[in-house]
Request: fold
Amino acid sequence: MMSARRWQDWAALLIGAVLVVAPFVFATGLAAPEAVAAYFFGGLVILGALINLAFPAVRYGEAIQIVLAVVIFVTPWALGFTAVAGMAWVGWILAVLLAATATTVVPPERRLYPART
Reply:
């Protein structure tokens, strides 16, 4: 499959960009824990999406995105910024979207037994 035709990678790129921009939208301090977490994890999501776009045959990129989604989902509790409702909800929603898009890349029957070529 050509990399430019996989919408999941483009969606992950957009999710990462939204995560990076979210601290500016919700006017949190640039050095606040929620902002630093958003920049860091948003950058990792963007990097992962770019790698997936460049190398579409590599399937472990989606597994990394699922792990990132779980970490992003837990981050508001781990860093204690659930009181910053806007940033917490952005993290939770984007984490669910990232996990959902990453799991749709490979059909379930091929996850355990990849086709040999």
Remarks:
- The chain has five helices and no strands.
